[in-house]
Amino acid sequence: MTRYRPIVRRGAGLATATAVALAAGLALGGCRLQRLDSNGSPVADEGPDLAEQVASLLDLQAAAWNAGDLDGFMSAYSPSPTTSYIGATGLIEGFDGIRERYAPGFAEGAARDSLRFEGLRVREVDERVGIATARYVLERDGTVTSTGPFTLVLLNVEGAWLIVHDQSAEDAGG
Fold this sequence. Notes:
Layout: E1 3-6, H1 14-28, E2 33-36, H2 50-67, H3 70-74, E3 84-87, E4 90-93, H4 95-106, E5 114-126, E6 129-140, E7 143-157, E8 160-168
Parallel strand pairs: 3-8
Antiparallel strand pairs: 1-2, 3-4, 5-6, 6-7, 7-8
């Protein structure tokens, strides 16, 4: 698991360390954290953090939904037979089963409300697993037609975060 620690030079006197920290804080506008590997050694910045990557993934998924692009929408899911979805109709197992669940809404001429996500919260379980919670909101002509919470389990597959489990619920009366 990736750990973080403030960059502080060991062996410096307390006054020197305080002065350096104060100067650095004023210069940088805050505390700088350095990413460490499991042995405590510094590692290079790995680019966007998990929350940014998941937010981007969901933005792309909502854009694909709104454009009527089923393949684009499904690209957020791992193409595995073990990928799962739980919703009002129960458990659906496998990428193909999830695709079949969504396909009617993407059929030519199908009514499909506009999708957006709100309140995204993400946490990294370890370098390969993340959990995201948020709310989906479906809207038509400025009126919310459905909304509810969801939880995603994401797996980092060769640098790409993909959904391996999606549990969505609709709010009562939605």
